[in-house]
Design brief:
With 188 residues, the protein is an alpha+beta fold. The protein is built from six helices and five strands; from the N terminus they run H-H-H-E-E-E-H-E-E-H-H. It has two domains: 35 residues, no CATH class; 147 residues, Ribonuclease Z/Hydroxyacylglutathione hydrolase-like (Metallo-beta-lactamase, Chain A), CATH 3.60.15.
Length: 188
C-alpha cells in the first residue's frame, strides 16, 4: 500500500476503483494507515489463538489471508467471494493474472485445514464451498487470461439481485487487461 500512496494521484486512483454508490462516502484519508507485518511473518505475533499468515500477490502487493488454525477459519481478504469476481492488481503488478493464480494455489494448499471461509465481500462459505470458490476464481482467471468464455454466476444475467454492478468490475478487468496488452505487451 505504501507504494500506492506514493503516487501523486493515489486518491483519484482509489476513488476510481470504488463502486459509484459508495465512492463519496469512503474516507480515503484512512487508506494505507496500517503498519505492515515484518517480511516473512508466518503467524500473527500476539497472545491470541494461532493465526497463520498466508501472504500472496493475488489481489494486491502484500495481500494475505489469515487462517485461524484452532477454529479452522480462513479470513480470505478480498478473495474467494461468492458475489465479487477476482480483482487482480492490473495497474502495477508485472504479471497480475499469474500472481492471482499463484495466490489461489497458496489458498488451495491450506484448504484441507479450513472448514469456513470468510471473504471480505459476500457471504461466509462452509465445507465444500471453500474449494468450490477457489475453483470458480481459478476458472474466471483462466478465462480472463486465455480469452475464454466466462461461465460465472457472479456476472451476466445470473448475478444476484443487488449485485449487478459487479458486472462493471468484470468489464473493467477485461478492458484494463486489453489496454495493458495493447500498450506494452505485458502479460494480462
Amino acid at each position: 500500500m505504501g507504494e500506492f500512496l506514493s503516487h501523486a494521484d493515489w486518491k483519484e486512483r482509489a476513488a476510481g476503483g470504488l463502486p459509484p454508490e459508495i465512492a463519496d462516502d469512503t474516507p480515503l484519508e484512512l487508506f494505507g494507515r496500517i503498519t505492515a507485518l515484518p517480511a516473512e511473518t508466518t503467524q500473527i505475533p500476539w497472545d491470541g489463538p494461532v493465526v497463520r499468515v498466508v501472504e500472496h500477490p493475488a489481489h494486491a502487493p502484500g495481500h494475505a489471508a489469515l487462517l485461524v488454525e484452532e477454529s479452522r477459519v480462513l479470513a480470505a481478504g478480498d478473495m474467494l467471494s461468492d458475489v465479487f469476481v477476482p480483482m487482480p492488481d492490473v495497474g502495477d503488478a508485472a504479471d497480475p493474472l499469474e500472481d492471482y493464480l499463484a495466490g489461489l494455489q497458496l489458498l488451495e494448499a491450506v484448504a484441507d485445514d479450513v472448514d469456513v471461509v470468510v471473504p471480505g465481500h459476500g457471504s461466509v462459505g462452509r465445507g465444500d464451498e471453500v474449494r468450490a470458490r477457489i475453483a470458480l476464481d481459478r476458472a474466471y482467471m483462466h478465462a480472463l487470461r486465455d480469452g475464454g468464455e466466462f461461465d460465472d454466476p457472479r456476472i451476466g444475467p445470473s448475478v444476484r439481485t443487488g449485485w449487478e454492478w459487479v458486472n462493471d468490475i468484470h468489464t473493467g478487468n477485461v478492458q484494463q487487461l486489453a489496454k495493458r496488452r495493447e500498450s506494452d505487451g505485458t502479460p494480462g
